[in-house]
Amino acid sequence: MEEKRVRRTAEQIAADLDAQVEQLMGSIDGIEEKKAAACAEYDRKIDSVRERIAKLEERKKALFTPKKRKPRKKKADQIKELIRQAQKSGMKLDEIADKLGVEIAE
Predict the structure, then answer these.
(1) Residues 5-44: pLDDT tens digits?
(2) In angstroms, rounded to a whole number, what is the distance separating the alpha carbons of residues 56 and 52?
């Protein structure tokens, strides 16, 4: 004997459709989590590349900025400095002139 197929009511069909919708919403949540993780990973990679770019820009800037150099002393300034050092060590002007073999004109 053949059994008759039981017909479902509209409420039962709607309940089944709601269950399917809930299942798909759950899968969307999982996909959203994967998307957020992937976005975070790419954001981290982008930040690391930006850091490298900043370092390269800094090197480029350093390349074109002139280096600060000590100004050279003129010969007269060097002689004055030498005499000051000799005076600081306790030598008098006539002793310095004597060592240099020079006479001081008064």
Answers:
(1) 888 899 999 999 999 999 999 999 999 999 999 999 999 9
(2) 6
Q: Are 97 and 103 in contact (CB under 8 A)?
A: yes
The type of residue at 78 is Q
Beta carbons of 104 and 93 less than 8 angstroms apart: yes
Rounded to the nearest 5 degrees, what angle is found at the Cα of 83, between the Cα atoms of 81 and 103?
A: 145
**Amino acid at residue number 99:** K
- The C-alpha atoms of residue 45 and residue 40 are separated, in whole angstroms, by 9
Q: Please enumerate in sequence order all residues whose Cβ is within 8 A of that of 81, keeping only pairs 6 or more positions apart, or say none.
A: 73
Is the pTM value of this prediction over 0.70?
A: no
